[in-house]
Design goal:
alpha+beta, Alpha-D-Glucose-1,6-Bisphosphate, Chain A, domain 4, 7-stranded antiparallel sheet, 4 helices, 27% helix, globular, Bet_v_I/MLP, Pathogenesis-related protein bet V I family protein, MLP-like
Length: 157
């Protein structure tokens, strides 16, 4: 009986790695402006969106259904452009004991960048499906965010 799992995907992006990562490292409250699948975000506990003691509330759409959860920043590694976020409460707790999103933004060194998403989870029982809908959601959100950031950069020029 396997309850723990990990899903990963990597997507090429047009936005420079530093700019894309900045959104998740220090502008998380702006994500809903860049991605239509994120309906609402609010600071639930704490005073700073990026402090490890703060809790955010998210409302989002996966597979055409509205979901909610809470999120805490576990770690932001500026040097390696990597962020780890723990999701809990709401719909997450109905299916998972533990659920983490990890984003790594990679500067390929040849003028291109990529975003690597990892979902680590522990299901509450073996009847629960892996969170494959999350991978589709993260891919679509990445595409939306990338397109929005590229458009912003063009307007700023």
């Amino acid at each position: 009986m396997v309850l723990a799992g990990k899903l990963m995907t990597e997507l090429g992006i047009k936005t420079p790695a530093d700019r894309f990562f900045k959104l998740f490292a220090s502008e998380l409250h702006e994500v809903q402006k860049h991605c239509e699948r994120v309906h609402h975000t609010k600071l639930h506990e704490g005073e700073d969106w990026h402090h490890t003691d703060s809790v955010k509330h998210w409302t989002y759409v996966i597979d055409g259904k509205v979901h909610t959860c809470h999120e805490k920043v576990e770690e932001i590694d500026e040097k390696n452009k990597k962020g780890t976020y723990k999701l809990f409460g709401g719909d997450i707790d109905e299916h998972y004991k533990d659920f983490k999103l990890i984003i790594e933004v990679i500067d390929k060194g040849d003028g291109t960048s990529a975003v690597k998403w990892t979902v680590e989870y522990v299901k509450i029982n073996e009847d629960i499906d892996p969170p494959n809908g999350w991978m589709d959601y993260l891919c679509k959100c990445t595409r939306d965010i990338d397109a929005h950031l590229v458009k912003q950069a063009k307007v700023a020029i």
